[in-house]
Amino acid sequence: MKVVVDLSRCQGYAQCAFLAPDAFRMHGEEALMYNPTPDDAQREQVLRAAAACPLQAILVDQLEERDAPVQAPPS
Ligand code: SF4
Hints:
Keywords: 3Fe-4S, Electron transport, Iron, Iron-sulfur, Metal-binding, Transport. GO terms for molecular function: 3 iron, 4 sulfur cluster binding; metal ion binding. By secondary structure, the chain is an alpha+beta fold. It has one domain (3-60): Alpha-Beta Plaits, CATH 3.30.70. Helix content is 20%, strand content 19%. The protein has two helices and four strands; from the N terminus they run E-H-E-E-H-E. The chain has helices at 15-19, 43-52; strands at 3-5, 24-27, 31-34, 58-60. The strands form two sheets. Strands 1-4 form a two-stranded antiparallel ribbon. The chain has a two-stranded antiparallel ribbon with strand order 2-3. Bound molecules: iron/sulfur cluster.
């Protein structure tokens, strides 16, 4: 799976590092480090982290929607 974090949005709230510590890690107080290609075994954790990010800075599988959860279209 592919993960991109918009670091211009990220404010270092660390929700992602808490929920998916294998994929996201805080480096110091505010700098986020992450694995852009986490193993599919981490999918659940990563999706949870993306959902929990208060700034929606985590984008998951934007190019391959295959296993993406179904979302209602924006109204
Ligand atoms: S949860 Fe969002 S804002 Fe917080 S560190 Fe992760 S990507 Fe950044």
